Predict the structure.
Amino acid sequence: MILASRYLRLLDPYMFGPDVMHVQERLTELGYYDGPIDSIYDEEIFEAVRSYQADYGLSPDGIVGPDTWNSIGLSPTVDYPLPPEGYSIEIDLESKILTLKQFTEIIETYPVAVGKPSTPTPPGDWKIIQKTLNPGGPFGTRWMRLNIPWGGYGIHGTNAPESIGTAASNGCIRMFNEDVEVLYDIVPLGTPVKIIGNVFTGRILSVGIEPGPDVFEVKTNLTQLGYYDGEIDGIFDEELREAVIAFQQDFNIVADGVVGVDTYNELRLAVDQYLNNREP
């Protein structure tokens, strides 16, 4: 199950960041947006997203989640060849270490933060397709976007240095600002990025499934939202099933008491909205 990085939506104060910039750029290319490319998710880009969603059979809620990220995709003009300098990056999700290589030689290693279990960093072979100086806020002093089509994933700095070395992000790779500044100056656009490691990307949950931390998290989330008031453990019982059904009914999901893709996505968005979460 693949979940997007942070959900872009209209908030007060506005959300901002290079992921917003990507949405502005893509909707400009697609003819839905003619405002400034300023990385700010304001009413103008919100309405542009809604218009795009309505035309492409998506729920016109103005929220850029997994379906909208997948739909708008990457610009067809973004195709950087392999740089001749021979630099490459490998990120190990288990050790939480980023390794910079030039051809086969290891140049440097850096500690990083990676995605939480509920919002994992996607393993695979990617490349850097965008670089931004001083994006600010939770993105720190540098941003390097990866060509992962279903979300705004990147390697970036942070305003939460205490998170480095942990699984803390919404899927991005965080670095100390002083480290990402060095890396940013070395690697060009097109640099290959290999992300390795096993990640837990979500089971389909229902009554009788083997207990696990994913059930614990669903119980925690539904407790935060006021749908569940039972014991918070890893067991999917009838009480949790009834809470899931109540949540599904309120969010226009098939009310079957099973936590699948749609329920995971709506639950995560609801929690993000409840907590006013803006973190990448």
The chain has a mean pLDDT of 92. The longest strand covers residues 124-133. The chain has three domains: 15-72, 87-196, 213-275. The domain at 15-72 is CATH 1.10.101.10 (Muramoyl-pentapeptide Carboxypeptidase; domain 1).
